[in-house]
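Thread title: Can someone regenerate the structure for this chain?

I was given the following input by a collaborator and told the matching structure tokens would be attached. They weren't. Posting the sequence so someone can regenerate them.
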Amino acid sequence: MKVEFADIERAAAVIEGAIEKTPCLHSRTLSQIAGAELYLKFENLQFTASFKERGALNKLISLSEDERARGVIAVSAGNHAQGVAFHCRHLGIPATIVMPTRTPFLKARQTEEFGAKVILEGDMLADAARFAHRLCEEKGYTFVHPYDDPFIIAGQGTVGLEILRAVPDLDDLVVPIGGGGLISGIAIAAKAINPKINIIGVEAALYPGMKARLAGEEPVVGGATIAEGIAVKNVGAYGAQICEELVSTVLLASEAQIERAIYLLLVIEKTVVEGAGAASLAGILAHPDMFAGRKVGAVLSGGNIDPRLLSSVILRELMRDGRIAQISVEIPDAPGELARIATIVGECGGSVLEVMHQRLALDVSAKHTMVEMTIEARDESQVEVILERIRALGLAVRQRN
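Best answer:
Regenerated them for you:
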């Protein structure tokens, strides 16, 4: 089955009322940072915080009564799982979801709360998929693929339909790529409405599956990525075929760039986005010359990020911005010496967040101690003022990366 624009329009009618029509809004501040007119599509505001609901519901509604009765099975790192589970509950379809063992706890728990049976199996998505297919054959379930399915692609394409209806004259539309279902559906819809638009994909640099596929190369993937939702080795056959025809280019975003995008969306747009969802903005900011002066849409595909991970991203970005610094100071092991250092930090307008003594450091005199201190400051220049004040006391101090 070849997915056509009419299939996406039909999917939009089918899911009408059960899916949020999320806002597509201009971001004044991010536009200034990017040097482009930037419009954000907030798919993180879906009920399950991801675009995946669209394709999942479109697929589930297409099932026969017999298929619904036997139940469905899906494999997912989280967002597809939640979309399938949530809409299965409302449609009365039994759902089994197989997730990799490294799936964030938040996503696994939420999937269970939507009423699905969750099975954790395999380190990678591919391992979980093999297990799910075996179980599918044994139990007679219907397999609901996360991306390589025409009904899934048509459902995801409704994102593009909404974006182009909101902003029909976009020059570029930037979309995260995992398996390729989202970008292929969006590309069909967007190109049908505006044939001149450029469709640009962004993958995590550690998982360049689509970029390799389009170049005719074997993908080299692996490693811990904050964008686990797009950590896919083997992209879908349907999606790859569509991308070959309609996608202009695929960009790669590093882990640091994705973290930066999550942080900027939080502090500027006051919106929580997961790593995969922030990939589009990360790609735009990593290639400013490509988008300079253009009208650009970016899909924020999901917002299911573990709070602990989000906290870590915030702290790491504060360190990159120089607002949090870790310093080591060698001081005499005597009363009042630590207070003297803390006083300097306070006098310079900083705050002490954490202190640890290293009395067993063998490269320090037995009469001295190494103090490791985490401090908060206004910016890098204020940190440097603090360091200079400490050095003026004749103490050895260094800032740790």
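The radius of gyration is 25 Å.
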